Each structure stands twice: as C-alpha cells, then as structure tokens.
C-alpha cells in the first residue's frame, strides 16, 4: 500500500514527469445522454437515460429536501441540488466503481456518509488499495474522502443518529454501518474514524440477506436492525441487542416525527407498532398479491401523512409489482409508472420509494434504471432523470467518412441508438428484438440507412452480425456468403467502412462489397479500427495490418509485442499508436516500439485501452482506460505535442457551479473528423464529448 506521503505527492510527481495532470483545462465536458427527439423539442436538456442498476432508492435530505443522492452499482453516484430536476455524477475522491447507499445528516446537509461498492466483493489477493468502504463528504457530496475500507461490494447499510447532534461542531457525531463481513461499525466523530462494536449484525443478516435494514431512533439513539432472523434493538450503541419480533424483516420504517411508531413488512404482511415494538398490529393490506407467500418488501411510509405508503412484491419470472396505499395500509393499488422522456425500456426494478418530508404528494422512485417522481402521492410516477447518463458501450465505435454526424452506438445491456445530428438527439431501437434490452457490440452506421453490430445472447458470448438497411426500422442477421450460416464475428468489437466507397463495409473480421447484402470473412484481418488517407488499418492477431485496395488484401505493417486493443495513426510523423499491455506505445519504423508514459491514477497505476488521434491536428492524442475494480482518476488524458506531455482530463476536483463532472472508466475514444470534438464512452458512465484544445481549434 502506498504511504500517505506518496499519495499526496502523486499529483506533483505526475506533473513533473508527464506534464500537468490536474483537470485545469478551460474546456468543459459535455454530456451526450440518449435524448429522444421529443425530449429535445420539449426543451429537456441534456436528457438522461440512466442505464445502470441503482443499488438503493433516492436518498433525501430532511433539512434540504431538494438535495438528493442516488447510488449506482458500478456507475458511481449521482446528486441533485434541485429536487431531481438535474442530476450530476459526483465522483471526486470516490475511488469505487459504485455505491450502496448514503446517510445525509438530518441537521447539516453538507455532512454526508456514503458506502462505496463495486457490485462484487474485493477479492483476496487484490491488494490493500481497497476502494470499497465508507466515505465522508463535508461539502454536500461535491467531493469525498475514504475513511474506512470494507471488502463488501453489496449488502452494506449506513444510518446517522440524529440525537447525537453537536451544535459546536455543527453535525451529528454518531453513525453506524452494518457490514456483512465487518460487523456493525460505529463512529463518534461524524465518520472520520470507525470502530467495530458488534458481530451481531452478521447473525441477523446471514448469507447476505438482503441489504441490512438499519435505522436509528431520532431522540434516544437506539439502533434498530432488521434481517433474516427478526427485528432487533440496541440501547447501548450497538454492542448488545434484544429481539423485538421474530420472522424475516424485508421492510422497516421509522417516522422521525413519531419515533415510537414502527412499521415492518415481510412474509407475514405489513405490521405496525405504536409502542416501540412491544406489540404489533397486522394491517389488512388488501390488494397486495404476495404471489404464493412472497414477502412484502421495502415498506415506505410518508412522514407528512402516515396514511400514505408504498411497498412491492418480488414475484417469480420478473413479476415485480409495486403498490401504494392512501388509507394507512388498509388497501393498496398497483403503482402506474409512465415513461415520459425515458428512452430506455421500462424494465422491472426494486420498489424503493422515498417520500418528501413535508409534502405528502411528492415521492421519488425508480422506473427501469432511471429516476422517477410522483406528484400525486405515489399513484403515478414518470421520468425525472435529466443529466443521468450511464449507458455502457459494447466495444468500440467509429465515425463514418460519409455522414460523420450519423453515429450508431451498440450497448452491452440496452440494445442500441443512433443519432443523425451529431449527438444532439438519439433514436433508441430494440435492435436485438428482445424488448428489455440486448447484448450488443461494435455498432457502426455507414449513413442514415445502413448500420450494423454484433449481437450476443449473453455478456461475452459469440457475436452474430446483425444489420439494418432501412434506417434502423428493421434488423436481420447477416449470413456468411461462403457457408450460408449466420456470420459469427471472431475479431474485435468494431465496425468501419471504406472512406472512398460506402458499399464496402467491415464488421469485425467480415467484409461486404455490396452495402451489406453479402458478407465474407477476411482471412488476413480480424477487424478494421480506423481509416487514414484512404488506407485501412486493422489487426490480425498481434500484428497491425494495412490495406490500400478496400480490404481485398492485407499486408502486415508491424508486429506488436503483447498484442493490442486499439490503434491510431499519425500520418505526418509516420507513427502508429497502439493500446498495448495497458500502456500507450508507438512505432515509427524500424524494429523498435516506444512506450509512452501517461499520467498515473490515485494508486499509481496506468492502464490504456483506447487511443485516438485528431485527424486535423495529429499532434493531439487522446488515451483512455478503465480499472474495472475501481474508478481510475486517469480515465482519459490528452497530449497536444504528440505524446511528450499530457493533461489528465478526468475530473478530480470538487463539483461546483463552474466545475462539472466528466467521464470515468473510458474504453472508447474517437475524434469527430469535422468538429474535432473527442467523443468518449465511460463504461457505465455514459457518452461525453470535449472540444479540441484551446489554441488548436
């Protein structure tokens, strides 16, 4: 593990060795979420598709209800300061790929404790730089500092004790974190340091059942834990617990203005206690179908009107039904979710709902992988997701030489979308025909009519070529002209077209000479990455190959030791760049490759997976990479002197009125041939673009 002194010196060392690494460039990142044309016509900007599975519901500040937070499994975290009208990714100081949840200080909204995650546990042998764990913010989630490491990727909860407010310090000092591996942790200094106080939490939540239900009494500080073995209370700071009731607890609600009134939900239905858990009354909950004894989950009660409640039932075969009550739980009706301006499918998700503390009509929830809001007390919800872009690209993308403002993107989870106006608006399409989404890779649009991608049945599965020749209206699998079978792609996830003839197309290792009507495998090229001055550049195993006859024949240019994942060409310097062995390398003739130092991240690591050169000014070079197990702070970097010095474009500064966020975990970069904007995809952090460097436009 790096010492604290080395970590503090890392930015200075990077600046000396590689040029400035801090994101101090005057240019700002611009979001490019998949905004439907109808949203643009309605004045929605920039739009927001979501695209990543939230790990919990919206978290709301009691003191400032317009301050909201949303945890995402592997797509970071989002905050809103205006009641969800606008969302922004907020990752400054947050090292993990995702989040499990948050606790906002009820007395001081600038004081926030978060639990970081990465969808799976930090593996043994992965090292001591564990990004998962507990984070503290003192500036309303504009920036974060890790204060405790935890290996868990899921199943961790956090709660602040409102009774511990210290007027002199200006925040609540006591908080708890329930960890399946680490036990029950407690802080007495607002989250700066943590101590394990009990292992009981692991007994209450065996086998990761499900996310711990952790609450703190607002006046006496007693701790409530609900889980598989029942509901428990601690009156001594979490050291010992007494059982309040048996049976699995799948929902736990405690009202701040009536703290002795408890609500629980589970297989036994919905129960209420008015005496702190000594006695219980079962609510009728008519209308809730428990689907053969399924538990009622995540009961949520409005603090402004306890007659209003939400819950949900997780049935078999994705029959997840969400309910609302306006009569104190006597009866429920299914919730109506309307898409509004949501471009993505309305897939089933957990019924996590968050009530406004004073307005009983206002509730926040989830649609598919996007935020929703209700203004009628939870009866209907609609899209409320502006600014949350988190779509994940499947493989690479390219600009067409014929219509560069027409771009088709294939998504690993959510089918694909194309733009005909340079990314201002997007047309989402169910290209796989599955409805809910699809595993799509290497999308490319020749023009407004012809586009194609590799279709897979599962993550990492074999890709079968699928294309549209009518502007995305219909899609068909392409056949191999030699075998008569479906064309199964064997090379990298990338598509391209010959810049001189829009009839000549390339999809991974396949070529078409008749605008996609027939396809044949190329024996000497696995995939075409780019076109430069009429020449095609691709790969064959670990060799860079080149064609000057529209891909009919290929010649080896040079072998890349260790192979490569992407390439770019500077024709003036006769230089080929490759992303190889997690580094940037270039070849300028002869028998030697030169390794180019690029900025290191917060842990001193470097990973380059994609590279792009500005076609107008090839001295401008971009690189990007992802660490996957954590969010690297060197996700995208730029050089303006052909790789001699570098600027780290990854946003690491706290968010402010002048400092927005940008992409993270970047694995695909291409430069628009006319506007010269660099387009990048942050894996699970959406599409972004940035203007060419100042002075080079």
Polypeptide structure, described:
This protein is globular. The chain is 4% helix and 36% strand. Residues 1-26 have low confidence and may be disordered. It has 697 residues and is mainly beta. A hairpin with a 2-residue loop joins strand 21 (258-266) and strand 22 (269-273). The strands form 15 sheets. Strands 28-32-31-30-29 form a 5-stranded mixed β-sheet, with no helix packed on it. It has 3 helices and 59 strands. The two termini are 42 Å apart.
Q: What keywords describe this structure?
A:
697 residues; mainly beta; five-stranded mixed beta sheet; five-stranded antiparallel beta sheet; disordered N terminus
Q: What's this, in brief?
A:
By secondary structure, the chain is mostly beta strands. It is built from three helices and 59 strands.
């Amino acid at each position: 593990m790096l010492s604290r002194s080395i970590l503090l010196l890392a930015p200075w060392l990077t600046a000396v060795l590689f040029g400035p690494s801090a994101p101090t460039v005057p240019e700002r990142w611009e979001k490019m979420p998949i905004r439907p044309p109808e949203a643009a016509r309605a004045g929605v900007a920039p739009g927001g598709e979501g695209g990543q599975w939230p790990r919990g519901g919206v978290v709301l500040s009691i003191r400032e209800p317009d301050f909201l937070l949303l945890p995402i499994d592997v797509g970071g975290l989002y905050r809103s300061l205006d009641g969800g009208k606008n969302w922004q990714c907020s990752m400054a100081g947050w090292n993990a790929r995702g989040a499990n949840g948050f606790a906002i200080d009820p007395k001081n909204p600038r004081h926030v404790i978060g639990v970081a995650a990465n969808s799976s546990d930090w593996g043994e042998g992965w090292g001591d730089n564990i990004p998962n764990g507990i984070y503290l913010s003192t500036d309303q989630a504009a920036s974060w500092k890790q204060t405790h490491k935890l290996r868990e990727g899921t199943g961790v909860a956090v709660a602040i004790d409102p009774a511990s407010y210290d007027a002199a310090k200006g925040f609540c000092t006591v908080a708890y974190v329930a960890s399946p591996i680490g036990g029950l942790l407690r802080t007495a200094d607002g989250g700066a340091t943590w101590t394990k106080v009990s292992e009981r939490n692991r007994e209450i939540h065996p086998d990761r059942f499900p996310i711990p239900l952790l609450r703190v009494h607002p006046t006496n500080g007693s701790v409530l834990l609900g889980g598989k073995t029942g509901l428990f209370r601690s009156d001594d700071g979490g050291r010992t617990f007494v059982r309040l009731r048996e049976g699995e607890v799948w929902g736990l609600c405690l009202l701040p203005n009536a703290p002795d009134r408890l609500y629980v939900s589970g297989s036994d239905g919905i129960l209420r206690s008015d005496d702190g858990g000594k006695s219980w009354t079962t609510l009728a909950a008519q209308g809730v179908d428990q689907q053969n004894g399924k538990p009622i989950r995540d009961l949520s009660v409005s603090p402004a009107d306890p007659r209003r409640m939400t819950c949900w039932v997780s049935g078999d075969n994705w029959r997840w039904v969400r309910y609302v009550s306006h009569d104190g739980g006597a009866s429920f009706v299914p919730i109506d979710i309307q898409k509004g301006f949501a471009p993505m499918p309305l897939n089933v998700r957990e019924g996590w709902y968050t009530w406004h503390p004073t307005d009983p009509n206002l509730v926040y929830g989830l649609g598919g992988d996007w935020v929703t809001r209700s203004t009628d007390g939870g009866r209907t919800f609609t899209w409320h997701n502006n600014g949350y872009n988190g779509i994940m690209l499947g493989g690479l993308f390219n600009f067409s030489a014929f219509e560069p403002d027409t771009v088709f993107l294939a998504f690993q989870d959510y089918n694909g979308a194309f733009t005909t106006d340079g990314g201002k608006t997007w047309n989402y399409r169910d290209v796989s025909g599955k409805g809910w989404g699809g595993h799509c890779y290497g999308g490319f649009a020749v023009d407004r009519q012809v586009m194609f991608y590799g279709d897979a049945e599962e993550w990492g599965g074999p890709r079968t070529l699928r294309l549209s020749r009518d502007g995305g209206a219909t899609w068909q699998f392409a056949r191999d002209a030699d075998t008569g079978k479906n064309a199964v792609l064997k090379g990298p996830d990338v598509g391209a077209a010959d810049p001189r003839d829009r009839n000549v197309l390339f999809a991974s290792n396949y070529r078409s000479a008749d605008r996609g009507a027939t396809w044949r495998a190329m024996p000497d090229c696995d995939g075409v990455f780019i076109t430069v001055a009429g020449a095609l550049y691709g790969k064959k195993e670990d060799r860079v190959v080149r064609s000057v006859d529209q891909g009919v024949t290929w010649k080896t240019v040079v072998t890349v030791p260790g192979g490569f994942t992407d390439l770019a060409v500077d024709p003036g310097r006769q230089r080929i760049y490759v992303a190889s062995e997690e580094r940037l390398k270039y070849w300028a003739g002869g028998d030697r490759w030169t390794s180019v130092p690029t900025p290191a991240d917060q842990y001193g690591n470097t990973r380059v997976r994609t590279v792009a050169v500005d076609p107008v000014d090839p001295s401008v070079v971009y690189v990007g990479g992802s660490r996957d197990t954590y969010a690297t702070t060197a996700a995208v970097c730029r050089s303006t002197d052909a790789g001699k010095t570098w600027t780290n474009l990854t946003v690491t500064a706290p968010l402010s009125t002048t400092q927005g966020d940008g992409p993270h975990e970047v694995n695909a970069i291409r430069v628009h041939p006319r506007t010269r904007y660099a387009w990048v995809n942050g894996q699970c952090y959406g599409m972004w673009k940035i203007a060419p460097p100042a002075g080079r436009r």
